[in-house]
Write a structure and sequence with these properties.
Layout (H helix, E strand, L loop, with lengths): L2 H23 L6 H12 L14 H20 L3 E4 L2 E4 L3 H21 L5 H34 L8
Antiparallel strand pairs: 1-2
Helix pairs in contact: 1-4, 2-5, 3-5
Length: 161
């Protein structure tokens, strides 16, 4: 089986997994740690660039980062928090499912198209960077949104001595 097909199947499985994680996350209170940790965990994947077959050019880096940042805008727009029972929860969004699978479809289509002109290793490096460039701004925006809501729920205490 072609590597592009295998990686596309893995991407679909990961997309479905993200949906289940997102649905579970909306049932439990959010925390700064839960928001911040995924980019750190994902960043270990950058070790792929140690191997020459995954290295990408400056133009490919720029393209991947720009597309990832643009995709993150849709994720940011569909990720909102709400207060329930004095806790902060990620609000369920019907649009998030469509955005996530729409972005997944676009990524698979791009990968299929580009696989005819770009080596599969470089393509993997590009799409990892695209995914990271999508995740990082999204999580940063979520963190600031969370902290803003958290500060309203827990205003700083002023000690008078």
């Amino acid at each position: 089986m072609d590597m592009v097909v295998i990686s596309s199947i893995v991407a679909v499985v990961m997309g479905i997994l993200v949906m289940f994680v997102r649905m579970r996350a909306s049932k439990k209170p959010a925390s700064a740690k839960k928001i911040i940790l995924p980019p750190f965990f994902m960043s270990t994947g950058a070790l792929m660039y140690i191997f020459p077959q995954f290295r990408i050019s400056g133009a490919e880096i720029l393209e991947s980062v720009i597309i990832g940042a643009l995709f993150s805008i849709l994720l940011i727009a569909t990720s909102k928090f709400e207060v329930r029972d004095s806790d902060i929860y990620l609000k369920r969004s019907k649009a998030f499912v469509f955005v996530l699978f729409g972005l997944l479809f676009i990524r698979i289509a791009l990968k299929s198209y580009l696989s005819s002109t770009i080596d599969v290793g470089e393509l993997g490096g590009m799409f990892f960077l695209l995914a990271f460039s999508m995740l990082l701004p999204w999580r940063i925006a979520m963190y600031f949104s969370y902290k803003k809501l958290y500060s309203k729920l827990h205003p700083p205490k002023i000690h008078v001595t």
